[in-house]
Amino acid sequence: MDQLLANIKIQVNDKIYVKDPETTTLGRKIIKNSLIMMDEIGFDNFTFKKLGELIGSNESSIYRYFENKHKLLVYLSSWYWSWIEYKMVFATANITAPLDQLLKALEIVTEKIEDDQNTPYINEALLNKIIIAEFTKTFLTKEVDEENKEGFFLIYKRVINRMAAMVILIAPAYPYSKSLISSIVEGALHQHFLKDHFKTITDCNEMVSPSDFYKHLIQHLLSPKS
User: Fold this and answer.
1) How far apart are CA 184 and CA 210, in angstroms?
2) Residue 14 burial by CB count (10 A; 0-12/13-18/19+): exposed, middle or buried?
3) Whole-prediction pTM value?
4) What pLDDT was estimated at residue 5?
5) Cα 11–Cα 17–Cα 23 angle in degrees, nearest 5
6) DSSP symbols for 13-55
7) Which of 88, 158, 193, 226 is most buried by a 10 A CB count?
């Protein structure tokens, strides 16, 4: 799978950026260092001015790639979900049993992310931390409906719909496949956050992962015996 992923260009809606950052050295430098800075100081304290100082470039040069830091965060989240989708598709392609397929997809979506050496300018482990902490800021905005019409969240929604289709194969009579999967995908990010910060209100810890919890949930909820 790693070799296949290495040969794939992650697709992001071209309306999100002014200039594709993957096409230039400076663009890739912007992405790489944005992750580092957002991880260190958080999205709210992140500015293009600070990023420019970090990478030794004018603030104006960053605006040639992104209109604002919101669009940059949307780009990073779109890249993340596209990468997750590719991993999911390849990991489940040869699994024939619908429940096993869904459990593998759940593992991909909810597991702790390690850095993928095939993408040297994006540290997926850092990106995962940013998604856990900041993803809701991409859509909890006044502009969400307009940005949704523009397709900014298409990849995220496609991940959920792929998994919802697996639920239907397992339990055609189950009436809440999309609500179930969207709750799991969003809930997994929340459980990772709780595990690291609010340990007393989650059962997830160093021994029990969010993946363990959600696979247990699915197996009991969708089992023919349930």
Assistant:
1) 10
2) exposed
3) 0.93
4) 46
5) 65
6) -TTS-SS-GGGSHHHHHHHHHHHHHHHHH-TTT--HHHHHHHH
7) 88
What is the pLDDT confidence band of residue 116, given thresholds at 50, 70 and 90?
A: confident
Which range (3-7, 32-36, 141-145, 150-154) has the least confidence?
A: 3-7
Residue with tokens 């810890």: 205
What domains lie within the chain, and their CATH numbers? 2-222 (1.10.357.10)
For 50, the token pair is 């600070």
Burial label, 101 (beta-carbon count in 10 A; 0-12, 13-18, 19+) = buried
Q: Are 90 and 147 in contact (CB under 8 A)?
A: no
What's the average model confidence in pLDDT over 178-194? 97
Is residue 137 within 8 A of residue 58, CB to CB? The reply is no
pLDDT band at 226 (very low <50, low <70, confident <90, very high): very low
Task: Return the closest-CA partner of residue 32 out of 19, 45, 41, 22.
Answer: 22
Alpha-carbon distance of 23 to 35, in angstroms, equals 18
Q: What distance in Å separates the CA atoms of residue 135 and residue 155, rounded to the nearest whole number? A: 14
Residue in the structure block whose two tokens are 């944005």: 34
What is the token pair recorded at 169? 């194969």
Compute the chain's Rg from CA coordinates. 18
